[in-house]
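Ticket #4471: complex job returned nothing on first submit. Input attached below:
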Amino acid sequence: MASTASTTANTTAVIGARLGASRAARNRRETVLRILAPIVVGLVVLGIWQFLVSVVGVSDYLLPSPASIAEEFAAYWPSILQASIITGTNALLGLVVGSLLALVLAALAARWRAIDLMSAPVVASLAVIPIVALAPVLNSMFGADSQFGRQAIAALASFVPVFVNTLRGFRQTAPVHRDLMKAYAAGSGQVLRKLTLPTARPFALTGIRIASSLAVISALVAEYFGGPRGGLGGLISTSAASSAYARAWAYVVASIALGLLFYLATLALERLVQPHRAQR
Amino acid sequence: MTDTGRDEPSRAERSLAERSPAERSLAEPVEAGSLRQAQGAPAVEITGVDKVFDTRSGDVQALEAIDLTIAAGEFVSLIGPSGCGKSTLMRLVADLDEPSTGTVTVFGKTAKQARLDQDYGIAFQQAGLLPWRTVADNVALPLEVHGVASATRRDRVAHLLDMVGLTEFADRYPDQLSGGMQQRVAIARALAEQPRLLLMDEPFGALDEMTREKMQADLVRIAGETGAAVVFVTHSIPEAVFLSDRVVVMSPRPGRIREIVTMELGPDASSGTRAGRTEGLREERAFFDMVTAVREALHGAPVAGARGVETR
Amino acid sequence: MTDTGRDEPSRAERSLAERSPAERSLAEPVEAGSLRQAQGAPAVEITGVDKVFDTRSGDVQALEAIDLTIAAGEFVSLIGPSGCGKSTLMRLVADLDEPSTGTVTVFGKTAKQARLDQDYGIAFQQAGLLPWRTVADNVALPLEVHGVASATRRDRVAHLLDMVGLTEFADRYPDQLSGGMQQRVAIARALAEQPRLLLMDEPFGALDEMTREKMQADLVRIAGETGAAVVFVTHSIPEAVFLSDRVVVMSPRPGRIREIVTMELGPDASSGTRAGRTEGLREERAFFDMVTAVREALHGAPVAGARGVETR
Amino acid sequence: MSGSRSLSPKLPEPVEGLPEPVEGAKAHRRGSLRRAQRASAVGWGIGGILALVALWEAYKLLAPADGVVIGGLRVLPRTTDLAMPHVWEMLGRLAEPVTRSPNALPLWLVILLAALTTLGIAAAGWLVGLVVGVGLALVMQRWRLAEWGLLPWIILSQTVPLIAFAPVVKSWGSRIEIGALEWQDWMSVALIASYLAFFPIAVGALKGLQSPDRIHTELMQTYAAGYWATLWKLRAPAAVPYLLPALRLGAANAVIGAVVAEVSTGLQGGIGRILIQFAGQASGDPAKAWGPIFGAILLGLVAAGSVALLGVLLKNYRRNEETA
Amino acid sequence: GDSGGDGGGGGDAGELTPVKLQLQWLPQGQFAGYFAAADQGYFEEEGLDVEIIPSGGDIVPQDALANGDVDYAIAWVPKVLGSIEQGANLTDIAQIFQRSGTLQVSWADSGIEEVADFEGKKIGSWGFGNEWEIFAAMAAEGLDSTTVEIITQDFNMNAFLQGDIDAAQAMTYNEYAQLLESVNPDTGEQYQPEDFNVISYEDTEGAMLQDAIWADTERLESDEEYQETTVKFLKAVIKGWVFAAENPEQASEITIAAGSGWGPSHELWMVNETNKLIWPSPDGIGIIDEAAWDKTVAGALAAVNESGAHLITEEPPASAWTNEWIQKALDELDGEGLDLTGENWSPIEVELQEGGN
Ligand SMILES: Nc1ncnc2c1ncn2[C@@H]1O[C@H](COP(=O)(O)OP(=O)(O)OP(=O)(O)O)[C@@H](O)[C@H]1O
Ligand SMILES: Nc1ncnc2c1ncn2[C@@H]1O[C@H](COP(=O)(O)OP(=O)(O)OP(=O)(O)O)[C@@H](O)[C@H]1O
Ligand SMILES: Cc1ncc(C[n+]2csc(CCO)c2C)c(N)n1
Ligand SMILES: [Mg+2]
Ligand SMILES: [Mg+2]
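Support reply: We reran it on our side without changes. The output follows.
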């Protein structure tokens, strides 16, 4: 009996070791694939693009080859950096202000139903206004000589997802948790700090993550419709207007990178503020 | 209706005054006068309570004409079919809801005052842990809310986690625990402030039989040690029998108390000490008899003799 | 440890070889030959099965050296502490997972073939109804998937709903049902194709005691009527005892079969017909004795006279 | 105390959540109560808009013409008629003819016609976005490698300013001629609209298709159900609650995309066109420019609202959504 | 673009040669001649079925032409010079506008009276290549683009009216009129020309040639059918512009019917001012004046924008312009009694109505 047991244990250990190794390998493979897959997809697309332009001979007039875009990117790097800073600053200010406003208003709307109901049509409308419509109005209101219009547009664009998600978050406190706080005779401030805010936090963070890309793209598109020059949007349009498409695409690449940067920054913020994310 | 003594009276003492007819037939005659005990207020006193919920689809009479007194230190289980109002009754005691008519007093005060005074600890059917707090922080929550100094808090939490066997898991988050472990955290949290009254709504629902039995034994011990009164909601007859001094059997729609069965569990148990409730009890004859008694109370009539053997 | 036969031996035949000492003492001598059933392959045959899960935090040996044969028409319960591998074992039979070593055959075929041939019906611990389908459509789901004609389907669903007492609720949606009703729909669904083998993983976990008892009686009846073999996972000893021909008691980490206890429940029950399992049974002496036998098997040894908490 | 209610041999059914029978009068009272509740929600909503109007006019009345400038930064807007026309002027302008031409239509009608045109284009873009988004979601659900490879790019795709490739789309489109179908300019606009619409749909559909609990996928497995049966009977219905908000967002995005693409490609007839045209006239006729802005908002609300109506049809697939 | 009759004309469409013309903005009086040619049937008379395609903010007409999406495009010379340097192969076949219509408008009391005064000011421009005249004029004054703050103007003149911009770009035919249609809040009346200082680039070294008709160089060299079409096309266009010169009211109505959203007074102003940029045209309408061309090239070479990019860095190829086809067209029209030089033309007086409606 004892010997059988130890044999079994040995077999188990052996099987275990084998499976353990295979799992570690699987894990590593998955991580590698997760990183590699998008890179491969990107490279394949770039490859096909370059192939079409340089070998098949599709006109590279409107759609320049990746190589020439890279060349322009390098040549205009200082201007690209400066433009990215201008647009990035607008987007960042808009994101921060818009998110803060959304958080505050969501808190008010969660607290007072009247505010919620009254803000509903206004928020729904904000969500469907095209930037083309908003930009000239804001430029007239706040002055075309300042970046304020773009920042306001980025703020409004950020406001909507943050408000909607946060408001939902404020409503997610579980009845059992509310009962618990009541059983503790907790004051309203304590309930807010210990329950309502932590419950809403992941929802708000999700909203901010969505808003981050929106802020960049909105700040950039707003530059098409008036205001000081020098941002990425203005340079994309100016370059395209003089048929310098490779340069235009170099600025587009910069705008994608800026969007990615914002997205990753909000992801990092999420990790920072919320080190443990419960699986749901 | 009940007239439980002010202190922990022996089961035998209380038996006549409180028992249902069915129960009474089991009881031995006892001197009525010996029941009275002049000591502090009872843990819970429920008098003429009705509770009506006004729902979208109409009124629901959740509780009707409830009278129940629970002595300090007494362990009372509520049992009854789903929807009979057990949770509702417990929520009234906890002042999480208000009775439509009647009064609820806790240690002689209003339920609200008792809540504000933190006279009870509560554990819900769901563990209800805050997912963003570690196990230790969850247990510490009531202490934090009530401004207990952080050093004291730490000691107390460590002690509680030790008690529920989760010391190693202090820094885990709830989603990293099994259902049973979460329940134990919730129980530790309910005990954090050493309340004189424990309200527990099916706290062991998520546990497997063995863990459940262990937790039952622990609960009996802890309640005994701290002298806390316990109101315990359960669906399990053996659990109710094992734990309680008295089992309140309820009937549904409208929720009423059908019977109150006082536990008579052999020589040890009848002495009134909870220490008598050990594992062996579960296999004693008296245990099965009480299970049968509660089962019959629950089914509303003695189980017909036609089927099987009457064990009484 | 256990040495279950490769084929379905009668209870009596197996009794000596398999039973725990406690059980053995309870068994009455029965004519071996009378139980033999000369029929095709056993419903389930598990031979030398190990199951190792390869998790992030290391390997988990969920099952070790499992040998178990379940005869056609037999009702077998699996019981054991949480995490002992009951669900895993059932999932292997259902071909939802594969054994690390050893083989599982179902009606003489591989588990996979049996799954493709729809030889079994399954009910999980949660009801697992599709919320967007009415009760009737949920029951019809397996029939739909297998292309049963709609008229046949309707008849069959009507019959099944009648059987579980939910005819009136055919057009309701799952969220309009109580937990117990949902469970019954899930059971009806599991029975939809009249499988020769029913796999049920704690199907009554969500029910209150009364509903649970009613469902147990129904299940016994239905399994008897259709002659299906049943593999039934539960945490409740009384439930296992009430329902089963044999109770497989498992021990945790690694999950092994500790004992197989054959039920001996009075004159009716010993005749092998399930009809003997009526409500009265629960209050019979033999029932309590079998409960005690399983409890002891579960705890690994006769419950000691000495009191104390079993922590295993 | 016991047995006020005799226990039948059958068990009492715990039927919580079931609508309990109520007398007609009570049901009626509740019905009208809910209607009253909805009416009050609408009332509050209108109140919100009126409050905004009041704020606008009050601010215009009280604040300095040049707005509020703090430290060189104008934090509150100017109140000139150019920047903030009176609400009644904006509304009144809608009733007047669009120009002094003898056969000019009233402004509101011009806006309405343009909005309908754009709505049609946006609907086409939304449909394309639906097909592409759901297609991508299906591929990503089926093959995890596809999810890993594509999803990051799908997210990144939305940071490309779509005006950057409007000319490319228009140019390539103009070369397409498949049989009788000749590429129309509105199709370029619809295609660009679909670029904004597909994103939430792809993400939402993927989430939805991946949403079934393990218990359900395993149930299908025990039925030996194949990919398509599982898709049809399980994944698709389970995806509905995720898909509906995604479709609503997609509709709003399609409208925004269509308007921007109209401006970008210079398509005639839609709301984007009159948006810039009247914006160009805003110096002389400030109120006129607001007409198409209101039109664009209304258009977005109508588009999103119609998709919400779709949700009513599919309400049985969203039974476990909260009603909030 | 339902102007100019689209290809679906059924039977007779088969006989007509389909032609696509890309405009550089929305339909408006600036393009009245083309709309008039379509409306009056001049294209059909020449056997052409012309589709007039308006442009939006991001469609660059010369790129649509270079990509082969259209057959001819209307575009400003400096912008196309940039495209040619980027690889487009295009030829200016008719210089419809003989003069630059770009103004820089400032308030009368602003002290900005010439380009030299721009220094340190906020200068408005639409971008999209419209800024090169400013940079060229500034370059001629020894100013580089970093000495001013360039502000992108949007679709209207609000930024200027509200003081965000010190000097705004304005076309004589459009934005300048927008100013005069706006109400002066101080007087409650429309603004008057005296309220503004107007710098016309035509009077500066920055002046550049504007609306020209561009054709595909390669097709022009090798494709005879295209050559024929080009002449026919130019003939019809000339007739259209002559019609607009003689019947500005009618031309304005035609443009409105073609989808311009402007009111009659603004549209008529636009046609009239456009006519001023075309007529008189001493060598005949559309003939490219080499001196003006060279001045445009010089300006384009001199201009550097604020990101340091040059519009062009070398002389454009000789193929960039030719008078061959316009001359042929003029010759063929000779004797039909049309005033091809505008010697008898004179502008009309247009009273702008408030709001431009
Ligand atoms: N907030 C509420 N609104 C309306 N009805 C309610 C509410 N809470 C409880 N009820 C109703 O009151 C009755 C009693 O409910 P309660 O939760 O107390 O039952 P319970 O005995 O705890 O049941 P279970 O054993 O299922 O937990 C039920 O019919 C229930 O539907
Ligand atoms: N997919 C899995 N991956 C890793 N480990 C698993 C997996 N499934 C089960 N296990 C482990 O295998 C062991 C047996 O699990 P199983 O679910 O079979 O237990 P069980 O007896 O059904 O328990 P319970 O009564 O709680 O349902 C446990 O230790 C569990 O953690
Ligand atoms: C998006 C965009 N906005 C404004 C203008 C300005 N604009 C209107 S008419 C005209 C003259 C050239 O035809 C110019 C420059 C533009 N071109 N593109
Ligand atoms: Mg309850
Ligand atoms: Mg299990």
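Confidence is low (pLDDT under 50) at residues 1-13 of chain E. Closing as resolved unless it happens again.
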